[in-house]
Amino acid sequence: MSISHNLKPTILVSPSLHHPSSFPFPLSFKPPFSASHSLILTRRLFLPSVSGIWDAITGGNNNAREAVLAIRRGMSLFRQGDVSGSVEEFDKAIQLDPRQKAYLWQRGLSLYYLNRFDEGAEQFRLDVAQNPNDTEESIWCFLCEAQLYGVDEARKRYLEANPRPVMREAYNMFKDGGDPEKLVAAFSGSREGEYFYASLYAGLYYESQNQADAAKVHIVAACQSSYGQRSDDYMASLSKVHCLCRNWVFN
Prior knowledge:
- By secondary structure, this protein is mainly alpha-helical.
- The chain has three domains: about 45-100, no CATH class; about 105-160; about 165-250.
- The protein has 13 helices and no strands.
- It has helices at about 50-60, 60-80, 85-95, 105-115, 115-130, 135-150, 150-155, 165-175, 180-185, 190-210, 210-225, 225-230, 235-245.
- Helix 6 (about 135-150) packs parallel to helix 8 and helix 11 crosses helix 13.
- It is globular and about 50 Å long.
- InterPro entries: TPR-like_helical_dom_sf, TPR_rpt.
- Keywords: TPR repeat.
């Protein structure tokens, strides 16, 4: 999914110390990597429900087709920083085609940035039930539940998954505790996408520990990485939205 350059979005989120009412500067996106770059292919690049997409393509279900369009709009709004608007579109998709709910990890991400942690945790648990091998949903469920119950209780509730290498290390760090600096160092010489994910999840780990300054260092680094600047991965957009929600300058 691509969006136009030089967007000047308004973020529509509930007021709090961490969620300013508007972006202080434009959110711009660069073209995705060319074919010569190595990419970490994740579900972040795709829409959720295969059955819904099939109905939309074949014309078998008009509601399913409209639901897929609503999800696309929601993803686009999130990329632009309109977090509240993205949830409205994701909820509309669920109303149109209830099958979508179990796959809408994008909705869970938006709910996290709206401080709707209970609903976010529920969304991620539904998603992991459908795809037990997805590490990132397990981590985001932990991030929501750490805000609700504290880190220790969130670890007791931690969802099992079988991740790819960089995410395996991140997964274990959230599950058992660990050193985010070692995570970043381990992948600092790796492919651009692996360094991006190591930095992003190091920062998110620090955020779960209420260490905002350390979180800022790593999530800003993720934004400023080549992958963060140039990839069309939804999580690259998320890293920018995260900085903007926290009022952190990243460019």
